[in-house]
Amino acid sequence: MTDTPPEKPRRSWIKAILFVSLALNLLVVGAIVGRFLSPDGPRSRDRVEGPVRSVIGEPFVRALSWDDRRALLEDLKSETPRIRETRENLRQRFEAFLVALRADPFVPEDIGRLLEDQRQVAKGRQELGEMLLLRRLEAMSAEERAAYADRLERSLRRLRRR
């Protein structure tokens, strides 16, 4: 008599686990690719960072052409001392705000004065940004300004949808 080796048990559950694993991997890859390809996905050329963001509203900068953005950054570099000064000024006012907030007795007028001072510093930064943006817009042709307006409108529509 010949001995037949016992049959190995079938492991059909391994196929199911592999299938589920593959499906999950494809789902993750699809989500990542979809995020990068979507209109609102992260695009390094559309990022607005640094001092530009603190003096000009992001939608205004994002709608500029790549060359105009670069030129705006160059214009802003000449204003670096002024921007640093206002940043330091805001920081000092914030620290004074915290001290006034913790003061006992609490003096609301002190807080109001500090908030007004902070508003004036922020207003100066915004005025600087507006001046630089206006300079860029003046340098554009009518067609470039129209294209800028179209990009700005699309950008604002995207923001409203969020």
Provide a compact summary of the structure.
The protein is mainly α.
- Sheet with the most strands, sense and barrel status: none
Assembly category = single chain
Low-confidence stretches: none
Shape: elongated
Radius of gyration: 29 Å
- Helix fraction bin: over 70%
User: How much strand content do the residues show?
Assistant: under 5%
Mean pLDDT score: 80
What is the strand tally? Answer: 0
In the CATH hierarchy, the architecture of the largest domain is Up-down Bundle
Count of spatially separate domains: 2
Give a verbal description of the structure.
The chain is mainly α. It has two domains: 13-42; 46-161, Four Helix Bundle (Hemerythrin (Met), subunit A). It is built from seven helices and no strands. Helix 4 (66-77) packs across helix 6.
